[in-house]
């Protein structure tokens, strides 16, 4: 990795500074302790899964599971935010409110360009959202069919939404956990396209098909006895992707809670083929999208312009084990960084890479190149980039003046993020832990994103990723390069030092 905009001025014996580039302008929502600068958080209240990700007219729409009246989970709404660059988010009025059919659980949105649904016109194509209705009354009464699928549409590019009068569009066949429709548009060999819905059904995925987004036919299911089954399957998604050899593969993302590799929630994926409603995995290996404890329920954006030529994904940066008790005050939860998914090959095995979206690479920032063993961290919102020199191991440590620390290393084929001494952790007995992931191939580079209360570690541009929440009592102040790192650069992504963080 090359250091860009390199202009060194020795500051102390161990710290070298580079030239300042243009300053970043963030929505000034980062004056509260733990409030991130470049990750989306709702202004107030509770958030979980990202929903309805759709790109329209230059804007990335992010809907999300939201309870505006409390910082814990409750009657779910779809909150709404938009961004033009995946870095600066503007929160908009709530898009979908609970109604007599139930809370509005997770789901997806598509741009119905041909007006297959008949809900708009070819001159005003509708945006169509499919979501789960969760009827709390039915749940209380002990029924099992209280989750059904509903439809809503927008004729003003996502600003306002109307619920479809024929809801629910898919009734419950008698499965207690029956939720999270994600729609993929599939073009068949004969050029015809149809809508395919992946739906989580207890411990497996159901596939449905539709020509008009309103009537759905069951195609088949996948998952019995395959993959990880430590918990309920949620938020599945079927993706068509290219392997490095150019062949077409199908990737099935499946979130699961609990039973993740670090306890609690996590997202596994399968790589294989999808034909006539049947998904066949290439092998029975269990693969995880992110080996950190805090990345769940992620899905991809639909309707990206062809020329973007990417699979763009975002997750919920938390874990059901403690999401509702983390020490943020006015809101709870953030999204992960948006990431670009690609298949790569390790000794004949295909795996899924998730790299920070390219918008983050070109984010305007102040850049410092680090020479020597230690450096100050200029703010609570930074990216650290480094090359792994020499052999395959590296180690670095972040610390603050209170002696709190995080260790990030690769040793003996394991990449670890150790948050055992990383600050406030008394809200959950498993939070203070070291989390490791196997990486049998060589680490070449590391990118680490810190943003007030999180760390995202991308080894080899996301060939291995660990995402973790961190609640340091005072911001990270120092980085110590213990071993094996070269060409280290720190990018300050914060507009100005955060005064409220300094006080703690
Ligand atoms: C995943 C999930 C979904 C559900 C939603 C409810 O985190 O449990 O399965 O639709 O959250 O908020």
Brief sketch in words of this structure:
The longest helix has 5 residues, at 136-140. The chain has helices spanning 136-140, 358-361, 499-503, and strands at 9-12, 15-17, 45-56, 59-67, 77-83, 89-96, 103-111, 127-134, 147-154, 162-163, 178-187, 193-201, 204-210, 217-222, 232-242, 248-257, 266-275, 278-281, 287-288, 296-300, 311-316, 331-332, 339-346, 349-356, 366-370, 374-376, 381-388, 394-399, 405-411, 414-418, 434-438, 445-451, 454-459, 464-469, 478-483, 485-492.
Written account of the structure:
The structure is a single chain. The N terminus and C terminus are likely disordered. The two termini are 35 Å apart. Helices cover 3% and strands 48% of the residues. Strand 1 and strand 2 form a beta hairpin. The protein has a six-stranded antiparallel sheet, with no helix packed on it. The chain has a six-stranded antiparallel sheet with strand order 26-35-28-29-30-31, with no helix packed on it. A five-stranded mixed sheet has the order 6-5-4-3-22, with no helix packed on it. The protein is mainly β and 504 residues long. The structure holds beta-D-fructofuranose (FRU).
